[in-house]
Amino acid sequence: MSTHRAGLGVSPGVVAGPVARLAAPPRPPADEKPGDDPVAELARVDAALDQVARTLQERAQATSGDAADVLTATALMARDPSLHSSIQGLLEQGRPTVASLDSAIESVCDVLAGLGGYMAERAGDLRDVRNRALAVLLGLPMPGIPHPGHPFVLVGHDLSPADTATLDPAEVLAIVTEEGGPTSHTAILAKGLGVPAVVRCPSSRDLEDGTLVVVDGSTGSVIADPAPDLVTQALEQADARRRLTATGAGPGRTADGTAVALLVNIATIDDAHRAAALDCEGVGLFRTEGMYLGRHSAPTLEEQEAGYREVLTAFAGRKVVVRTLDAGADKPLAFVEHGDEENPALGVRGLRVSWRHPELLQTQLQALGRAAASTASDVWVMAPMVATPSEAADFVASARAAGLSVAGAMIEVPAAALRADRVLAEVDFVSIGTNDLAQYTFAADRMQGELAALLDPWQPALLDLIAAVGAAGERAHVPVGVCGEAAGDPLLACVLVGLGVRSLSMAPGLIATVRLVLAAHSLEECRAMAAAARDAVDGVTAREAVRALAGEAVRALI
């Protein structure tokens, strides 16, 4: 008999396939005895941690974007001097070697969990370091993705950065985890790979290897032992999706010809080269902090100019929207004194970092201006975390001084959305970051998985703020785009267009489906969808209301 499990859908698509579970992590032996020489045992632990760090760094170098950033940060955790000191102290107390490593890391994880938000999510990454180091010390197989020899649905407690960075979408049909949230690395990387994913599905823990499941990454539904007709329907839907999305090409537009630019999000130069080969209209979000993170000093003017020039050259003739440095909060810089903040997400982050360190923004704008002039590219630049019209005006003036003719602002703070008319009077364009806008609108930490329902981009209150910005854009004839996770949801894309949004930037693997669904609906139909979503009581009913308005072919697709 089929059984249903509910989770949070974070990457769209419907698939059917057998379960393959992540192996349980190794644990310290219950009968482990202390070593005779604490110095020698510490050397063993250091060697194991170094091996783990080198493996993670090699994987980071073999990938790019968000995966590379997370793997690099995790490798640094394995080499943390404070962790070495903690293990040394336990060994000198006469504790067993493997137990000392386990205990020291678990103590750090407890501290990270107590800090909440982004830091709490890093506890999972550190536990992955622990599990890999334990495997080395115990001579056990390294934990990671199973390889049963056939395509499968990957099921586990949660995925580590090393796991998600090496997923093969030809092998992994879908992902189902007990933990995670809408902005966890599992969700972000699954969307980038185009793999359906469901997170926060605690009842998935009893799914056994080989169990046939149907996974819906849009609704968060996981059905075990489904009826044959449901399997057939899922397989047909997946096949129809592949065939239909392969037929679309060219600029984005609605059924009646309203232009909607379909753009990609990138974070590295490697991302740029890969995305430039795709059928997209340019870059809607170039996250530049990748040039800064993991460094002990700021990148020089010349380094930045060279990097920007390479990205702009890859997209020659197409628009590239560059977001200036978005540091602070969950992305601290080693060479910037961020100070002690009770709540970093509400502290000095984004554009606010330039209040303390104006040279960072000035150098970045100067480098970008030089790169733009030497490539004759269509460069747009925007600042993150703009809260007031005066902040927007100051940023635009700085961009103009650096030779950048098109300057705008991110709308991520409710104050900016509520005063959109005033903000738009100061800029050439705006782009809405739905992830942070949802976080601040609902007072819900975007890294806190249990608050996922509040962070749902379908929430009507969030759509009301987007509508206010869209209407202000239409009145002022200022372009309004969306570059948050909402842009890659095909149905929600129609809603956003109905709210006045005219450019959508997303993970490259999502563009084909968004293009197809937009082309199936007129602007008036998109406006009707937007009205239905805003009239709903919550995110779930908003999505259901819009899905009911979509055509039958589209419902089968998504």
Describe this structure in words.
By secondary structure, the chain is of the alpha/beta class. It has three domains: 115 residues, Phosphohistidine domain (Glucose Oxidase, domain 1, 3-Layer(bba) Sandwich), CATH 3.50.30; 101 residues, PtsI, HPr-binding domain (Enzyme I, Chain A, domain 2); 265 residues, Phosphoenolpyruvate-binding domains (TIM Barrel, Alpha-Beta Barrel), CATH 3.20.20.60. It is built from 22 helices and 16 strands. α9 links the parallel β9 and β10. α9 runs parallel beside α10, α10 crosses α12 and α20 packs antiparallel against α21. The mean pLDDT is 88.
Gist of the model:
With about 550 residues, the protein is α/β, with parallel strands linked by helices. It has helices at about 40-60, 65-80, 80-90, 95-115, 115-140, 160-165, 185-195, 230-245, 270-275, 300-315, 355, 360-375, 390-400, 415-420, 420-425, 435-440, 460-475, 490-500, 510-520, 525-535, 540-550, 550-555, and strands spanning about 5, 10, 15-20, 150-155, 170-175, 195-200, 210-215, 220-225, 260-265, 280-285, 320-325, 380-385, 405-410, 430, 480, 505.
